């Protein structure tokens, strides 16, 4: 018998609940559908699809709803997926009671994302995880592995 994944639902996770779990436990619960996905994921049609220590992957399907006046997907959509992947890669390493915030991130746009690009994946990985800071990188790729953008971030651990 095959187990079907739980349906995704959206909402706000109580800080008390989030802080009682390790980062890995929280992200696995979102993937499993036992904790809600953040509302922005519904708005932008993307979501967390993989999480393992030091790595997080988000998938999204861009549409003309995400287009800018230049007739391609707005850089903010791309940056959001990359920021989510990098931040959640850091989140996978947090112990219960720890938190983090992004101090800065940089995005390089390599080629335009279009509605015809299909599903894209933002793959985030840890570069460094220390006591007070962490750095991560991510790339946005299509189904064939073609890179559309890449990014780096620095996060504060607290």
Strand content: 25-35%
- Name of the CATH first level: Alpha Beta
Overall mean pLDDT score? 95
The ordered string of helix (H) and strand (E) elements is HHHEEHEEEE
- Span from first to last CA? 43 Å
Rg of Cα set: 15 Å
CATH level-3 fold name:
Thiol Ester Dehydrase, Chain A
Notes on the structure:
The protein is of the alpha+beta class. It has one domain (15-157): Hotdog Thioesterase (Thiol Ester Dehydrase, Chain A, Roll). It contains four helices and six strands, in the order αααββαββββ. A six-stranded antiparallel sheet has the order 1-2-4-5-6-3. The longest helix has 17 residues, at 75-91. The mean pLDDT is 95.
Notable characteristics:
alpha+beta; globular; Thiol Ester Dehydrase, Chain A; about 160 residues; single chain
Structure at a glance:
The protein has helices at 15-19, 23-32, 39-44, 75-91; strands at residues 46-52, 55-60, 100-109, 120-129, 133-141, 147-157.
Secondary structure layout plus pairing:
Blueprint: H1 15-19, H2 23-32, H3 39-44, E1 46-52, E2 55-60, H4 75-91, E3 100-109, E4 120-129, E5 133-141, E6 147-157
Antiparallel strand pairs: 1-2, 2-4, 3-6, 4-5, 5-6
């Amino acid at each position: 018998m095959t187990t079907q994944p739980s349906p995704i639902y959206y909402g706000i996770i109580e800080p008390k609940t989030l802080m009682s779990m390790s980062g890995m436990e929280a992200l696995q619960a979102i993937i499993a559908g036992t904790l809600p996905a953040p509302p922005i994921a519904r708005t932008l049609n993307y979501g967390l699809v993989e999480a393992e220590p030091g790595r997080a992957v988000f998938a999204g399907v861009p549409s003309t709803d995400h287009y800018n006046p230049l007739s391609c997907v707005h850089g903010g959509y791309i940056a959001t997926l990359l920021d989510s992947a990098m931040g959640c890669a850091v989140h996978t390493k947090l112990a219960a009671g720890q938190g983090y915030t992004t101090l800065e991130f940089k995005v390089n746009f390599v080629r335009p994302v279009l509605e015809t690009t299909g599903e894209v994946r933002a793959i985030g990985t840890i570069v460094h995880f220390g006591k007070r800071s962490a750095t991560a990188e991510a790339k946005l790729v299509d189904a064939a592995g073609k890179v559309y953008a890449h990014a780096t971030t620095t996060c504060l651990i607290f």
